[in-house]
Automatic annotation (TrEMBL):
It comes from Sphingobacterium alkalisoli. The lineage of its organism: Bacteria, Pseudomonadati, Bacteroidota, Sphingobacteriia, Sphingobacteriales. It comes from the Bacteria. Signal peptide: none annotated. GO terms for molecular function: nucleic acid binding. Residues 4-57 form the CSD domain. This is CSD domain-containing protein.
Length: 237
């Protein structure tokens, strides 16, 4: 599915447009939703949909639409990890309006997070993140996921202790480490995401290195050779 932000919508007539990162403007009709939203649709709400070309001129129409509304939609939002998520929402300039610089580019990840968790308890956010980590996360995107949490999501969540919120998540990641996630944390020197703060480096098990030797570059081999088992890896590797 594609994610985009509603650019404008006429609730009386039941149609408008969605603005996307790659597909430009897409026509949206209220009947395109699997389940019609309970309230009025508003500018900048995040919608997941499929795109259908409807004319010979290549005009696009949204089908199978879903407004991101609940924590259950978090997995849909996470399909944006590693993607460009800035949508150009600049309104046309007329005699009566001046472009607002804060209204030009809209981050789907940021505002999708607000749409899902604004005015919801901190526990709802924690449970949603941990469930996604346990059941859905692609290990190769672990660093992107944690970067999103650190830079976008956690600063938006209403909490009395932001540091404790971070540690709650990172300690869970550590307690449920897999070889793949540990390797990603090691490769990117991102040990804070697994609640490791005791040193500059983390000598991960030799067998993890051996299993992923084809993914390593020269600088990483030089790093490994300083480890207690470094002599087991000859320069020819």
């Amino acid at each position: 599915m594609i994610l985009g932000a509603i650019n404008w919508f006429n609730n009386e007539k039941g149609f408008g447009t969605i603005q996307t990162v790659c597909s430009g403007s897409v026509f949206l009709h209220i009947n395109s939703f699997y389940r019609k939203p309970l309230g009025e649709l508003k500018r900048k709400q995040i919608v997941a949909f499929k795109k259908k070309t409807t004319t010979d001129q290549g005009e696009s129409r949204a089908t199978g639409c879903k407004l991101l509304e609940t924590a259950a939609d978090f997995g849909i939002l996470m399909t944006l990890l590693g993607e460009d998520t800035l949508v150009d929402m600049r309104a046309p300039v007329t005699r009566n309006n001046t472009p607002d610089p804060d209204d030009q580019y809209y981050c789907l990840l940021k505002h999708g997070t607000l749409q899902l968790f604004d005015n919801r308890p901190e526990r709802s956010f924690i449970d949603t993140v941990l469930h996604y980590f346990d059941k859905q996360l692609d290990e190769a995107k672990f660093i992107q996921f944690c970067t999103y949490l650190e830079q976008i999501a956690i600063p938006l969540i209403k909490t009395d202790d932001r540091e404790m919120l971070e540690q709650t998540l990172y300690c869970h990641f550590y307690a449920n480490l897999t070889a793949g996630i540990l390797f990603q944390a090691w490769k990117h020197n991102a040990f804070r995401y697994i609640a490791y703060t005791e040193g500059m480096d983390y000598e991960i098990p030799e067998e993890i290195i051996a299993a992923r030797r084809n993914e390593l570059d020269e600088s990483e081999w030089n790093r490994i050779r300083l480890y207690s088992y470094g002599a087991n890896f000859l320069p020819s590797t």
